[in-house]
Design brief:
Rossmann fold, globular, six-stranded mixed beta sheet, alpha/beta, 12 strands, binds pyridoxal-5'-phosphate
Length: 326
């Protein structure tokens, strides 16, 4: 597979620095990789992927881009920013996540006002909101949006959920290289993992080294390691390495909490600890759960030595507002 020349969207390398207070609290040499500070469309891990994916979009001659995600998707927001920058029409199908059965909580951070939705509108995105859908309905809705734009004469490029294509994983393979050039080797890298290309790219880069990559899952789906393996096959076509098997991924499902897109109690506590001890803000549904996993693994003795926490961004979700779906 040929890799397009990346578009310069984000400010690289992102900062890498120690966390002195938390290092003391947890008895680790703890560092943080600031992909929340990419300097592009409010930051986050998707900017790296988009440098390659948007280059592919331009090479395809597309006039419009369509993707999908949850109502507060950080990916949708960053694609919206990239399309604004490149003068492309952008539309996304986004769904309102149904609350888990019997969940008595009031609307929370997956909601449909403010946060990323506000930023999407500033970037001129066309957002099609689907109340209470599931992933397959969302897929269908996304194809409907593509058909609508094509009927209007657009040449549409459809980007998969979360930018988890081989090019997206390649961007994170290079992010691993970036860290290796910034600092002495880490014993562990801990990151949030959802659609999978962040985890896959980092795991592929550090494969066979002394650095173990732990993906803290934000989805209650153990089978995702099959997807990671599949993604690594596509990535291997770029890097020349071999595919990774599902059991090669360290995939931790113990911090998902009530489900995808919903804040967990221990994640919210982890978010507060990071804010109170280091004045760094996490997001409620990805990076807070990843940091919750890190704390758990530090407390049970799994983690030790030099540990890197990968801040994947998502902070606009802190400003999401309550549900107002008709
Ligand atoms: C803030 C944040 N962190 C982590 C992730 C997970 O990254 P990936 O989809 O590459 O697994 C996402 C995905 O949406 C995200 O928005």
């Amino acid at each position: 597979m040929t890799v397009p020349q990346p578009l310069p969207l984000v400010c690289l390398p992102t900062p890498l620095h120690p966390l002195p207070n938390l290092s003391q609290d947890f008895g680790l040499d703890l560092w943080i990789k600031r992909d929340d500070l990419t300097g592009f469309a409010f930051g986050g891990n998707k900017g790296r992927k988009l440098e390659y994916i948007m280059a592919d979009v331009l090479a395809s001659g597309a006039t419009a881009v369509v993707t999908c995600g949850s109502a507060q998707s950080n990916f949708v927001r960053q694609v919206a920013g990239a399309c604004a920058r490149l003068g492309l029409r952008f539309a996304a199908a986004v769904m309102v996540l149904p609350y888990p059965d019997g969940d008595p909580r009031p609307p929370g951070p997956t909601e449909t006002k403010g946060g990323n939705l506000l930023l999407n509108s500033l970037f001129g995105a066309e957002i099609h909101l689907f109340p209470d859908g599931g992933w397959s309905e969302l897929d269908h809705a996304s194809s409907e949006v593509v058909r609508k734009l094509e009927a209007q004469g657009e040449r549409v490029y459809q980007i998969p959920l979360g930018g988890s294509s081989p090019l997206g994983a390649y961007a994170f393979y290079l992010a691993g290289k970036e860290v290796a050039e910034q600092a002495a080797p880490f014993d562990f890298v801990v990151t949030a993992s959802s659609s999978g290309s962040t985890h896959t790219g980092l795991a592929a880069f550090f494969r066979g080294s002394g650095t173990k990559v732990i993906g803290i899952s934000c989805d209650p789906e153990p089978d995702i390691t099959e997807d990671l393996s599949h993604l690594s096959e596509g990535l291997a076509k770029i890097t020349g390495d071999s595919k990774m098997e599902p059991n090669e991924f360290w995939f931790d499902l113990d911090s998902v909490g009530p489900g995808y897109g919903f804040a967990s109690d221990s994640g919210t506590q982890a978010l507060s600890i990071m804010a109170l001890r280091e004045a760094i803000l996490l997001d409620p549904v990805y990076s807070a759960k990843a940091f919750d996993g890190l704390i758990r693994l530090a407390k049970n003795g799994t983690l030790g030595g030099r540990v890197l926490f990968w801040h994947t961004g998502g902070t606009p979700t802190l400003f999401a507002e309550s549900r107002s779906v008709p």
